[in-house]
Amino acid sequence: MVGRCLLNAQRFPLLAIAVALIPTLGTFQPMAIGSPRAQEAEGTQIEVRTIPIKRSITAGKVLDVRVEIRNVGSKPLLIERGIYSPCGPATPLSLRLDLGPPMKPQTGPGFGCASDCVYTAKDSFAGRLLHRWTVLPPGDFYGGVISVPPESFPQLSTPGRWRLSGTYKSIGNLSSPFCLDAAPIPDNEEQIKGLPYEAWQGVVFTNSVWIEVVRAGSSAAVKKSP
């Protein structure tokens, strides 16, 4: 894949190296990259699957979910490196827990967080690209385990069966800064046009899976996903 890179290395030497390293660097991140067999679906570029680590958890505990984003198309795509985060800049995946029992009105402090992310003149175009985007070749997947806190999902504190599903979406805007941009790059648009791959854009829905929230001290077994 690196040998077929169409980027003009003489014009953008640092960027050519950075783009070539994106898949390599990704393997050293907490997220995972693999090559499962995948059949290409007409008109479909990616598929997103959620797999809870445990099918049942104790009320008030964090729900850990494995997420797999698969390229089922025929071309390499740029996708966002971040998958899901309740804090910080917006990430592509949003989750839902529904069709469960009635919930009591929530009391006490809500869930809050703060995040600082600022680009300065020291952050090159290549560095910013690597910070936010990664290459997903055809037939490969990118993913990892995300944590869903009960502070942001009160359903996880309500005993019962809940249906977990999600939506993964991106506008594919490579020029949109991931952080507050205190030092815009003058030729940003020109360098984006020189990239060999396009960013994926669209909306896809994940699979749905049922989880069970059990009361603390309950004799019900906490089941792991098969």
Describe this structure in words.
This protein is mostly beta strands and 226 residues long. It has one domain. Helix content is 12%, strand content 31%. The chain is built from 3 helices and 14 strands. The chain has helices at residues 13-26, 125-132, 188-193; strands at residues 32-34, 46-52, 56-58, 63-71, 77-80, 93-98, 118-119, 133-136, 141-148, 160-170, 180-181, 198-199, 202-205, 209-214. The strands form 4 sheets. Strands 3, 6, 10, 13 and 14 form a 5-stranded mixed β-sheet that branches. The protein has a 4-stranded antiparallel β-sheet with strand order 1-9-4-2, with no helix packed on it. Strands 8-5-12 form a 3-stranded mixed β-sheet. Helix 1 packs parallel to helix 2 (125-132). The longest helix has 14 residues, at 13-26. The radius of gyration is 20 Å and the shape is elongated.
Structural class: mainly beta
- Overall tally of structural domains: 1
Instruction: Enumerate the spans where pLDDT stays under 50 for 5 or more consecutive residues.
Output: 1-30, 36-42
Order of helices and strands: HEEEEEEEHEEEEHEEE
Strand count, sense and barrel status of the largest sheet are:
5 strands, mixed
Helical residue percent band? 10-25%
In angstroms, what is the radius of gyration?
Answer: 20 Å
The backbone outline, from C-alpha atoms, is elongated
Count of helices?
3
Mean pLDDT: 79
* Share of residues in strands: 25-35%
What distance lies between the first and last C-alpha atoms, to the nearest angstrom?
A: 34 Å
Give the tally of β-strands: 14
